[in-house]
Amino acid sequence: MIKKCPVCGLKFNTRQNGVIYCSTECKIKNRQKRDREKCSSKKQKSNLVELNAQAREMGLTYGKLQAMKYAQEHRLEV
Ligand SMILES: [Zn+2]
User: Fold this and answer.
1) 18 vs 15, 21, 25, 34, 45, CA distance in Å?
2) Distance 43 CA to ligand 1 centre (A)
3) pTM exceeds 0.70, yes or no
4) Following DSSP, what letter does each residue of 44-69 receive, concatenated?
5) Considering only Cβ atoms within 10 Å of each terminal Cβ, which end of the chain, N or C, has fewer?
6) Ion ligand 1 — residues with CB under 5 Å?
């Protein structure tokens, strides 16, 4: 059957039913694109919420916690 690759738009011939992309390259490209979108929107937000909750638990503001973390990391490196 003839299918159209959603990544590059190429029409390709396949005998397998579950094949969506024309090549492994396009499959990876699509996954990377999705992963990037997930990372930039979801991950950053949840991380911030988590840090805010952590700061509240310790009775600190978010800025103070960040400063503390930075100091800890800095000391570890030295
Ligand atoms: Zn393709």
Assistant:
1) 9, 9, 16, 19, 34
2) 28
3) no
4) HHHHHHHHHHHHHHTT--HHHHHHHH
5) C
6) 5, 7-8, 10, 22, 26
- Locate the domains of the chain by residue range: 2-77
Judged against a pLDDT cut of 60, whether residue 1 lies above it is answered with yes
| pLDDT at res. 42 | 59
Instruction: Single out the residue of 33, 66, 34, 72 nearest to residue 47, CA to CA.
Output: 66
CA of 25 to the centre of ligand 1 (A): 7
Which pLDDT tens digit goes with each residue over 50-77? Answer: 888 888 999 988 889 889 888 888 887 6
